[in-house]
């Protein structure tokens, strides 16, 4: 095995001292243009790669960030992760990806693991049950919430315009003559879903339509079978003329229930899903959806996190609300 190239080797090749090479690598002190050029030429010619472990010991940073994804199989979160990775690389940070599967115990475990790995910051979509730990954690390490927000925890946040997007979708159904609009939601304490319910309620109030709580089906926990059962129960007992599913997993369950009951879209029941999927544009009929800027959300989260890591801690935490788009197709 060839012997690793060291800073001393680079210094001899460049005709400088090891401390000069170190200053070029870390930017810790000025170096003359001639010496910098000689060092950079030697680094490139020799294929030298500095030790990140040694550098982290000197600078107390690892140039790595952690990302906690709620469900890596969900295309929305995959797109968020893609945006995070691309933007992190652009800023010179590596990424450690963790999948919580909507499990608060996993979330807590991964947060501890990321702390042990001494990441410089963490981006996560909070599940909602580790509030006190996360509140304390925010005093130790830069954090950014993406897609979701914990009530009473003042840290950087990137979200879609959940209430506005849901309100526009409900208005469309009302304009198409639907007065019994069923809603599929999830009873977990997740702010984004309550914001989407609020958008639905706002649109009804604007149209002077009464709110019927029986038309709101809450799935007790994230489980595909329970989602299908809840949608089927709502369709059979309340007979809504339209269904609004408040995330893509709820939408897929609603589609399964509609198919199982032998109903037709949009003749028997119209359907809108909050959060677009590529498959919705391939179905017959194609499914109307509220599109979220998932990759942009990931990119913006990294920008806010890097700002915190690199010294902009004096400003108040920002909450970035990104616009959604109603993609009109054939299901309404």
Explain the overall architecture.
This protein has 332 residues and is α/β, with parallel strands linked by helices. It has twelve helices and twelve strands. It has helices at residues 7-14, 18-26, 33-46, 52-59, 75-90, 104-116, 131-137, 162-175, 191-206, 224-237, 248-260, 294-309; strands at residues 64-69, 94-99, 121-124, 143-146, 156-160, 181-186, 216-219, 242-245, 270-274, 288-291, 319-322, 325-327. It has a six-stranded parallel sheet, with helices on both faces. Strands 7-6-8-9-10-12 form a six-stranded mixed sheet, with helices on both faces. Strand 1 (64-69), helix 5 and strand 2 form a beta-alpha-beta unit. Helix 1 (7-14) packs across helix 2. The radius of gyration is 25 Å and the shape is elongated. The mean pLDDT is 89.
**Percent helix among the residues?**
40-55%
Arrangement of strands in the largest sheet: 2-1-3-4-5-11
Distance between termini? 66 Å
Low-confidence stretches: none
- Mean pLDDT comes to 89
Number of strands: 12
Provide the structure class: alpha/beta
Count of runs of 4 or more consecutive helical residues: 12
Strand portion, in percent? 15-25%
User: Which outline best applies?
Assistant: elongated
Radius of gyration: 25 Å
């Amino acid at each position: 095995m060839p012997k690793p190239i060291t800073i001393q080797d680079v210094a001899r090749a460049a005709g400088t001292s090891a401390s000069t090479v170190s200053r070029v690598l870390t930017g810790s002190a000025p170096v003359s243009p001639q010496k910098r050029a000689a060092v950079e030429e030697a680094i490139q010619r020799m294929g030298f790669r500095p030790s990140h472990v040694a550098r982290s010991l000197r600078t107390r940073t690892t140039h790595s960030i952690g990302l906690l994804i709620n469900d890596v199989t969900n295309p929305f979160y995959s797109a968020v992760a893609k945006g995070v990775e691309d933007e992190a690389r652009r800023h010179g940070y590596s990424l450690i990806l963790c999948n919580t599967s909507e499990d608060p115990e996993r979330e807590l475990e991964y947060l501890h693991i990321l702390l042990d790995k001494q990441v410089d910051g963490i981006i996560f979509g909070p599940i909602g049950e580790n509030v006190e730990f996360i509140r304390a954690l925010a005093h130790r390490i830069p954090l950014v919430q993406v897609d979701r927000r914990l009530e009473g925890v003042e840290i950087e946040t990137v979200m879609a315009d959940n209430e506005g997007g849901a309100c526009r979708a409900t208005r469309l159904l009302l304009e198409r003559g639907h007065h019994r609009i069923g809603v599929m939601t999830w009873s977990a304490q997740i702010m984004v879903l309550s914001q989407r319910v609020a958008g639905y309620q706002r649109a009804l109030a604007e149209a002077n339509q009464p709110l019927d709580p029986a038309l709101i089906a809450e799935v007790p926990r994230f489980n595909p079978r329970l989602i299908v059962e809840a949608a089927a129960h709502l369709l059979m007992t309340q007979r809504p003329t339209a269904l609004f599913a408040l995330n893509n997993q709820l939408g897929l369950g609603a589609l399964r229930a509609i198919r199982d009951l032998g109903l037709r879209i949009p003749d028997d029941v119209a359907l809108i899903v909050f959060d677009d999927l590529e498959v919705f544009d391939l179905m017959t009929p194609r499914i109307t959806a509220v599109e979220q800027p998932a990759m942009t959300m990931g990119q913006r989260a990294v920008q806010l996190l890097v700002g915190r890591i690199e010294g902009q801690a004096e400003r108040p935490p920002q909450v970035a609300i990104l616009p959604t788009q109603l993609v009109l197709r054939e299901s309404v």
